[in-house]
Amino acid sequence: MRFGKTLQSSIYEPWKSKYIDYSKLKTLLRDDGNAKGRASADSDDHDWTEEDEGAFVEELVNVQLEKVNAFHDETFKSLRDRTNVCETKVQEIAASEKNEGDDDHQPRATADSDAAPQTLPELLETLNHITTEINELEKYSRINYTGFLKAAKKHDRRRGSQYRVRPLLQVRLAALPFNSEDYSPLLYQ
Question: What is the spatial distance between Cα 13 and Cα 125, in angstroms, rounded to a whole number?
Fold first, then answer.
C-alpha cells in the first residue's frame, strides 16, 4: 500500500488538519509540466532549481515539521494537565471515602458523599477519553515520523544527485521529542 493511502486511513478525524501534508510535499517534488507522470531522473535534475529545493526544504522542515511538532507538544501538555487534574480528583475522592470510613458513627448522607458517586463515573469517562487520546497521539507521532522519512527518501531518490535532505531531517527529528516521546507515564498515572 502506498504511504499516502496509509496516512489517509490512519488519520484521527478531530486532528485531521494537524497531520503532515504529504500530498503537498509530493506535489513540490514533481515538475510543473509533469504533474501526472514520472519523468526520468535526468530530466528531473535539469528542471530542479535551487528555488525548488528551497521551497521543498522550507515546506518540509520549517512548515510541516513545525506544525506537527507544535501540535504534538500542545496536545501532550494538555493531556498531561488533564491527567494531573484527574489524579487530584481521585485522591480527593479516596480521601473523602477514607474519612467517611473512619467516622462510622456519623451519618453518610453528607454533601461530599453524595457528590463522589456522581464525579466518579464522570472521572472514569474522562480518564477513558484521555487514554484514547494518548493512544491516538502515539499513532499520530509514528505516522508523521514515517511521513517525514518517506518524503525525504522520495526527495533524495528523485532529486538527490545535488541535494540530500534526509541527513538534515534526521538531525531535526532527533532534536524534537515527538518521535521519541514515552507515553507510558501518562497511562500509568
Answer: 20
Residue linked to cell 456519623: 106
Predicted local confidence at residue 39, as pLDDT: 45
Q: Which H or E element spans position 37?
A: none
Integer-rounded Cα radius of gyration of the chain: 25
- Residues present in the chain in total: 189
How big is the CA angle at 34 (ends 29 and 37), to the nearest 5 degrees? Answer: 90
pLDDT tens sequence across 87-136: 888 888 888 877 776 655 554 444 444 444 457 888 889 989 999 999 99
- The whole-model pTM stands at 0.78
For the segment 164-174, the average pLDDT, to the nearest whole number, is: 91
Closest CA to 147 of 39, 59, 61, 22: 22
Report the C-alpha gap between 186 and 3 in whole angstroms: 30
Instruction: Give the helix ranges, DSSP H, for the chain.
Output: 3-10, 22-29, 41-47, 50-57, 65-102, 111-159, 166-175, 184-188
d(C-alpha 41, C-alpha 161), whole Å: 9
